[in-house]
Amino acid sequence: MIIHLYNTLSGKKEEFAPLKQGEVSMYHCGPTVYDYAHIGNMRSFVFADIIRRTFENSGYKVNQVMNITDVGHLTGNGDLGQDKIEEGAQREGKSAEDIIRHYSDAFFQDLERLNIETAGTKFPRATEHIDEQIELIKKLEQGGFTYKISDGVYFDTSKFKQYGKLGSIDIEGQREGARVEANPEKKNPADFALWKFSPDTSEKRQQEWDSPWGIGFPGWHIECSAMSIKYLGETFDIHTGGIDHIPVHHNNEIAQSECATGKTFVNYWLHNAFITVESKKMAKSEGNFMRVTDLMKREIHPLSYRYWLLTSHYRTPANFTFKAVEGTQIAFESLVHFVARYSGGKIKQDIINDILGDFQNDFNTAYALARLHHLIEKEPTADAAATIVAIDSLTGLSIERLAKEVSSIDSETTALIEERKRARDVKDWKISDSLREEIESRGYMVSDTPEGALVFKKLSSLV
Ligand code: AMP
Ligand code: ZN
């Protein structure tokens, strides 16, 4: 089965050729667990899940790794500023360990809400791989790619001729000059820290380790190289992350990995575009930071958010508004209610093949969803319902489970439905209409069909 992927490295859509026949190895940059992940972050995690499902449904064995950053990611997103975990600990007056545990738990809870498969995925933590990171830095030191200055050991980007091959180097982003001063001791502006020394102040870091260069902690980028090489090998198939990682983090991962091993690090680099809110980046400082639980407070089911994500292509920025997601929740609900109506149909294999083809074509999820809606309009049958359920292993929308949940009606509502039927039988439309309103006010949707009234819960009432 042929899969086409858009590779940031070549700037083209390419046919996927695995390193090992029938297997795919992939690494995803995961969350920095100093705060809650927002719904923008969720796009990159849902995207990783969609890639996994596409390969699994295409017959591949998937080796998947997503890291948990629990040290070394600095507030400047470069080599200066405070460690985000230490900052979180100070902010909340807790230990680094408590911060990591709390926000990792919240992260896994969100993955579950969005039906992101985790059972077969490894989630290594940076703090549990300090030795591997030190070993990698030692290799780079032996190869002459490093130098030491007062605050740490740095990678000398001038020693790697292909530095920046993934895309433009955002020098400004690296310096982070706006909030913290650039480091004048660096040889080249793009050079980055591999190991940082603990500051020489009375304030002791909560997380620090001994190393051949002195007590300190690893730079942010080295964890991804060390852990991906450990679990997937020196060369692996696919690496993903949000587009913000292209200029710095991923160029740095390539530089340090390829200089340490002498091999190509990754064959296919995939990046998702951002979720914006009113066309602005989602950030605490913008006041538009939103979590999955914030959507739930507005009666948006997490799987409706997943559905909304799939309605746009992962490489296109998507602008979040409550109105847009509420609208897609209604479209999604129509699929769920449709499946709830029928049972015992036969799967339409031609539709399954077409939809798998959409996913294999650089994850054209929007087209796949449009096909499902076309199907229920054109052929509202039990076969269509069985097909939608079968496609769930690709879309991950949990439609079968939701169809069961919307069909569970409490006894009081069942009594109202019976009463309404009796009113309709004697053509008492006034009573029938007021009973409909009452049933709907309880979170149900009523549709009258030639076979009688169909009553299902609304997705908003499952939240
Ligand atoms: P972080 O926790 O900041 O390291 O980010 C985790 C992942 O989310 C990374 O792959 C980021 O590139 C990605 N990401 C961050 N913000 C957004 C956003 N607004 N939209 C989509 N992806 C994002
Ligand atoms: Zn990474």
UniProtKB/TrEMBL annotation:
Cofactor note: Binds 1 zinc ion per subunit.
GO molecular function, one term: cysteine-tRNA ligase activity
Top-rank taxon, per record: Bacteria
Any one GO CC term of the record: cytosol
Motif 'KMSKS' region in this chain: 281-285
List of residues binding ATP: K284
Domain Cysteinyl-tRNA ligase anticodon binding as annotated: residue spans: 410-450
Cellular compartment(s): Cytoplasm
Subunit structure: Monomer.
Family as reported in the entry's similarity comment: Belongs to the class-I aminoacyl-tRNA synthetase family.
Name under which the protein is recorded: Cysteine--tRNA ligase
Phylogenetic lineage: Bacteria, Candidatus Zambryskiibacteriota
